[in-house]
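RECORD TYPE: inverse folding
INPUT: structure tokens
STRUCTURE:
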């Protein structure tokens, strides 16, 4: 049965679709069509969904039906909408599109551009030697079946040492190796969350976590983060857990994605105690824990304060090492790890042995690799912050003390419109609404500093031109949308 989006739902997703403060607007029908294309491109509006009738959407948006009719016609002409008289209109994408490496949609003829949609570094130089060494180690495993549901012992020992060195004694039996952090989250949700279960998340938060929760049909409630250095309002966060008593809370306490906030030690301890009292399990995403900048000291892991197996930590090698090495892990109690392994057998059996061996060799050189990453990221962050201060001084940015992203507050609710317009000047963005629910966060934009400094400075220059000078070009010429990830 084809799913349908109602007029009020689509209106929430569209947000500030028709207005850019300080600019001469394009025709409303063109702006509306472009906004729908943007929702399709970044995955907030799925394919094959029936859109509301023209009259219903017009009423929800408080515009004329003529405007909606013209917008739907433009979407049909560009290949983004299929209509059948008397049956409705369904979302689609032109035949020139393919699934990108991000899992979303991108044009086949996508030209080179500065991609600020993906917050990830290129591979370190140590990767190739580690792969060669792993290939030499592989014969030791070839006599067996190759299935290790919790991971090979060498890697589990290496990951356990990482936690122990952070002040959290951990045994290999408490570690399960997964195919990346997202896979770790999916397995944890399969084990701990029934369909319709309540989950508390930060707002903004990691988009793919929201997608995983939606796939489990979770009832999501949010805790809003402040834009200052504090981030979490302790009383509001703990009060939300006490009042809603969710089954799970998914949090990113180390250099939160996308804001870069770092949770202080006192809140970590209170969080675990409150979660235990409320019967809430904590899923703690530690994807960025290896990337403090400027010598920022790290508080103890959240699981340090856990005495009742309420905390499940997930992490991986995508951010400090390379996203193409799909190695992640879960740290939990030994019985929980065994239950996760049993649940995993029905999903993918085990992680590739060769990839795990590569990870073992990279972790053996963690000190030199991560130190170089921190130096690189600090320089690139400073270049991005400087360029923003010079070219877009009205944007507010809290400089993060770690991680890989800035969370910029813009000078108006223009994030999605700016992301669409930036495609024309060769910059791909992740607009604020990607990181929240129901089209909110239009005043914000995530800007990763994972690209070379020169590319970041160039990207900011192009964004400044789009923000202030696009009104001189008249009606924008819409290109096929490129997807944000």
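DESIGNED SEQUENCE:
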């Amino acid at each position: 049965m084809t799913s349908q989006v109602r007029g009020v739902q689509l209106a929430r997703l569209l947000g500030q679709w028709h207005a850019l403060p300080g600019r001469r607007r394009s025709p409303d029908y063109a702006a509306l069509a472009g906004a729908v294309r943007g929702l399709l491109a970044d995955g907030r509006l799925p394919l094959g969904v029936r859109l509301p009738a023209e009259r219903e959407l017009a009423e929800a948006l408080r515009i004329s039906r003529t405007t909606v009719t013209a917008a739907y016609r433009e979407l049909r002409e560009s290949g983004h909408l299929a209509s059948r008289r008397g049956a409705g209109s369904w979302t689609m994408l032109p035949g020139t599109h393919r699934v990108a490496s991000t899992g979303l949609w991108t044009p086949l003829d996508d030209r080179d551009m500065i991609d600020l949609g993906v917050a990830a570094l290129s591979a370190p130089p140590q990767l190739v030697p580690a792969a060669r060494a792993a290939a030499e180690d592989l014969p030791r495993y070839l006599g067996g079946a190759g299935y290790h549901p919790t991971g090979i012992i060498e890697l589990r020992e290496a990951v356990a040492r990482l936690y122990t060195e952070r002040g959290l004694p951990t045994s290999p039996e408490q570690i399960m190796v997964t195919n990346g952090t997202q896979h770790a989250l999916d397995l944890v949700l399969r084990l701990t969350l029934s369909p319709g279960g309540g989950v508390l998340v930060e707002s903004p938060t990691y988009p793919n976590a929201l997608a995983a929760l939606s796939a489990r049909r979770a009832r999501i409630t949010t805790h809003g983060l402040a834009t200052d250095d504090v981030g979490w309002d302790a009383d509001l966060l703990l009060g939300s857990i006490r009042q809603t008593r969710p089954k799970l809370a998914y949090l990113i306490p180390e250099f939160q994605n996308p804001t870069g906030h770092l949770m202080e030690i006192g809140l970590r301890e209170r969080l675990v105690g409150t979660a235990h009292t409320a019967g809430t399990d904590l899923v703690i995403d530690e994807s960025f824990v290896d990337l403090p900048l400027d010598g920022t000291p790290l508080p103890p892991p959240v699981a340090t304060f856990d005495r009742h197996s309420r905390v499940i930590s997930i992490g991986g090698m995508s951010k400090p090492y390379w996203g193409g090495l799909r190695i992640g892990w879960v740290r939990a109690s030994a019985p929980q790890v065994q239950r996760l392994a049993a649940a995993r057998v029905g999903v993918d059996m085990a992680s590739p042995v060769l990839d795990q061996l590569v990870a073992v060799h990279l972790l053996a050189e963690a000190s030199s690799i991560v130190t170089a990453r921190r130096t690189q990221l600090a320089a690139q962050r400073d270049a991005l912050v400087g360029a923003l201060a010079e070219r877009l001084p009205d944007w507010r940015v809290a400089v993060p003390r770690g991680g890989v992203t800035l969370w910029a507050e813009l000078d108006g609710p223009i994030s999605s419109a700016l992301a669409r317009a930036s495609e024309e000047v060769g910059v791909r963005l992740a607009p604020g609404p990607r990181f929240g629910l129901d089209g909110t966060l239009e005043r914000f934009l995530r800007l990763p500093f994972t690209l070379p400094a020169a590319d970041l400075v160039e990207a900011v220059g192009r964004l400044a031109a789009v923000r202030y000078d696009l009104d001189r070009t008249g009606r924008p010429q819409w290109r096929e949308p490129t997807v944000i990830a």
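NOTES: The CA atoms of residues 397 and 408 lie 5 Å apart.
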